[in-house]
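User: Second chain of the day. Same drill as before.
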Amino acid sequence: MSKLLFQIKLCNPKVLGKSYSPTLLLKKHVYFTLPAATYVNKSDRKATTVALTEDVTKAFPEKPSIVPAWRPTPSTDRTNIIQQYLKLSKIRLTTLVVVTSMAGYAVAPAPFEWGPFALCIAGTGLLSAAANAVNQFHEVPFDAQMNRTKQRVLVCGRLTPLHSILFAATASLSGLAILNFGVNGLTASLGLANFILYTSIYTPMKRISILNTWVGSIVGAIPPLMGWAACANSLGPGAWLMAALLYSWQFPHFNALSWNLRPDYSRAGYRMMAVTNPGLCRRVALRHTIALEAMTIAAPFLDVTNWWFVLEASPLNLYFIYLAYNFYKDSSSQTSRKLFRFSLIHLPLLMILFLVNKKKWFVFDEEPQSSVKNVVAVT
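Assistant: Same format as last time:
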């Protein structure tokens, strides 16, 4: 391998002091091999590049053809665009929203029609996806400070902010059009109100006041109203009861979840009950589990379900109250996790029991009577 010769000007030995000892630098010439094909002279003067001879450049291997693991930010890779959209939409949260709207549609005392049912699912899902995209757009600098959210697509640069806003605009307009023209105006109005409430009130309030938890619970209570309105084109006592059940369920669910995320929320500057008022966080979780049992008992009196619903749902509610009481008395990571995990089981079971035990499956009371009168009139 060819070697280059560089002459190094030695310093005055007087400058080095008595501890100065001869080293390699004392030699007039030093021979060494350069590690690259070019050499940059780094001195007080302006940096200059010295081109090496052809013999030296041949000695070095060619540029590796393996693509590096890193990607530029924001990433220009669009091979997983569907997966990135699903993450931007918070697909698990969107699924929960859609399922609760489906429950509202199924429980409503009106004939079940597959067309409006499918359009309600599509419109609700698109609106929820758009709202979550706007939420992530606003919270990028705060999500970057939390371990739970620092891997989101906008934080990591897998999608650009402009891309997320275009996605949110397309999804929200499509969802509203589907609900308004495919279902009815009441459902579309509820969807639009929920979209504005989540993106323009709840999202900024998270850094202002602990009242954001109550506002967020209202957001979670509206989807069953949308499903009920899509089926019956009105809101009866059963619709408000379902919304109240969803409203109260969210407090033990979220308060238990946020308890173990207090360092994250505090670091990001979010005003959560678990951070600013832990005692209130525990009390509110217990109160709303008790409220769930009270609303369960009220369902037959409102002529929404039969009494079997109370008998079947009460054991679930009582165990929920028991876990919330343990969390209230001993607020540890263990009790909060048990309460949170059971809340994930409690809601779907409660909705299934509500559906199975609903009082009216179809409303055909008026039509058969009118048909009988017509038959009598003809005869």
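The longest strand covers residues 4-7.

User: Great, on to the next one.
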